[in-house]
TrEMBL record:
Organism the protein comes from: Synaphobranchus kaupii (Kaup's arrowtooth eel)
Pfam families in the cross-refs: Tektin
Main location: cytoplasm
Protein name as annotated: Tektin
Subcellular location(s) of the protein: Cytoplasm, Cytoskeleton, Cilium axoneme
Coiled coil: 368-395
Recorded superkingdom: Eukaryota
GO biological process: cilium assembly; cilium movement involved in cell motility
Signal found in the keyword field: no
GO cellular component: axoneme; microtubule cytoskeleton; nucleus
Family per record: Belongs to the tektin family.
Keyword entries, A-Z: Cell projection, Cilium, Coiled coil, Cytoplasm, Flagellum
Keyword Nuclease assigned: no
Length: 451
């Protein structure tokens, strides 16, 4: 039955508590034609259906409630354990990040130490290269000084050969040192590049460590949590854990390789420095020995030439005395010659038979011939003596000039020795060591190609 079948419905009026219950049913007058009525069985059937439906709905509700409780328990446990597992994973990830951060920081510190050591070695080699300018200037100055020798003293002696060899040795040393310095500069650049890669990776590790540490510290009660739009999206740049670890491993491996190469280069640079210092010292000693030997030879030559000059001067003095004696004797022979010639001439005036060739005549002729031969011999000898005197005087002058040239050459050699004393200051710059430096490098090798 529906409300449409009735014009009005009975109204139940209840009184206040304590009052007598009174029910007044007011029947209204039907205003329309009544509809179809249902039978009692239908009514009972409807009631049963209502009860069955209610029971069915209750059963369904009960099942849903049980499933909801099960779901709540399962999801609560799942959420708890997922959060716990992810927190553990975050801790493990933080440990991995911390470990790699320490490894990268330690490797970066080692790279800095090696870079500083290589830089110091390069600076030492640069100072050694700069110090080679003095020996080169000294060698060139000595060559220039010795070019001022004159005449026969301008010889290509062992000193000149050693000085030229010293110039070649020094220029070769400068090329070798410059090559080592250039290699050191390139290696420093490679170390700095490796250090830059380590710095970037280390900074990324620090940032990632801060992010993961912040994520680990977040809880459901944190104020910074909120729902995010599409947080599970895949952005460009995601890498796998293997790629992540391989990247840092490669950075560390590259840095270690660069450090090993730098250490080898530092050993080679020290060995190169020892080799060039020993080579320069050996050439320096050879040049000084040749120069001192040449100076000694010049001193001996000057002494010998001085002795020759003294002996020649003595000979000239004696020869001049003998020439004066010859001239005096020659003049002394003029009177006897006049006498004998006068006698011969006077005896030609004997008259008649008295003009005979007697023993007196033969004696006077023999005496005249003897005097003429003597005078001729003395004149010849006087001419020879005068020629010899002139030759001695000329040679004496030549020896004087030669002695002057030798003394000038000796003076130049002594000035060269004095100039080379400037190299004594190289001991302060460790360019020329007092003792031979052992030719070893950091790897213990004793033979190393300088180039």
């Amino acid at each position: 039955m529906t409300l449409d079948n009735f014009a009005t419905t009975p109204k139940l009026i209840l009184g206040r508590p304590g009052d007598h219950l009174s029910v007044t049913v007011k029947m209204a007058t039907l205003s329309i034609k009544p509809g179809q009525r249902y039978s009692v069985p239908d009514w009972e059937t409807g009631n049963r259906q209502m009860g069955d439906t209610a029971a069915l709905k209750r059963n369904v509700s009960h099942e849903i409630r049980q499933e909801a409780r099960t779901l709540r328990n399962e999801t609560s446990n799942k959420t708890h354990w997922d959060k716990s597992d992810n927190s553990r994973r975050l801790k493990d990830r933080i440990n991995d990040l911390s470990r790699w951060k320490e490894n990268l920081a330690s490797c970066a510190q080692e790279v800095d130490t090696e870079t500083e050591a290589l830089t110091l070695t390069k600076e030492e080699l640069e100072r050694t290269l700069a110090a080679t300018a003095l020996p080169l200037d000294v060698a060139v100055d000595c060559l220039t000084l010795r070019e001022r020798r004159r005449g026969p003293e301008l010889v290509s002696d062992p000193v000149e050969a050693e000085l030229k060899k010293e110039v070649e040795v020094i220029t070769g040393i400068q090329r070798t040192l410059q090559q080592r310095i250039s290699k050191a500069f390139e290696r420093i650049c490679l170390l700095q590049e490796a250090r830059h890669q380590l710095t970037l990776d280390l900074q990324n590790k620090r940032d990632a460590l801060d992010v993961d540490s912040t994520c680990l510290s977040l809880t459901e009660a944190s104020r910074d949590i909120s729902l995010k739009p599409n947080p599970m999206r895949l952005i460009s740049g995601f890498t796998s854990p293997q790629q992540w670890e391989q990247f840092s491993r490669l950075n560390v491996s590259r840095a270690q390789e660069e450090m090993q190469a730098s250490q080898q280069l530092r050993g080679d640079m020290k060995l190169t420095k020892a080799q060039v210092l020993n080579e320069l010292q050996a050439q320096h000693m050879a040049t000084d020995f040749a120069l001192r030997k040449r100076a000694h030879q010049l001193e001996q030559a000057c002494d010998e030439l001085g002795w020759q000059q003294k002996q020649t001067n003595d000979e000239i003095t004696e020869l001049e005395q003998d020439i004066r004696g010859l001239e005096e004797d020659l003049m002394a022979k003029t009177a006897p010659l006049k006498l004998v010639q006068t006698r011969l001439e006077n005896r030609t005036m004997r008259p008649g038979v008295d003009l005979c060739r007697d023993e007196v005549h033969y004696g006077l002729v023999e005496e005249a011939q003897q005097l003429e031969a003597t005078i001729k011999a003395m004149k010849d000898k006087l001419a020879q003596a005068q020629h010899s005197l002139q030759a001695l005087q000329q040679h004496q002058a030549c020896m004087g000039e030669d002695l002057a040239r030798k003394q000038e050459a000796l003076s130049l050699e002594m000035r060269s020795l004095e100039t080379r004393r400037r190299l004594a200051t190289m001991a302060q710059t460790e360019l020329v060591p007092n003792t031979i430096v052992p030719l070893t490098n950091s790897s213990g090798r004793h033979a190393l190609d300088l180039l």
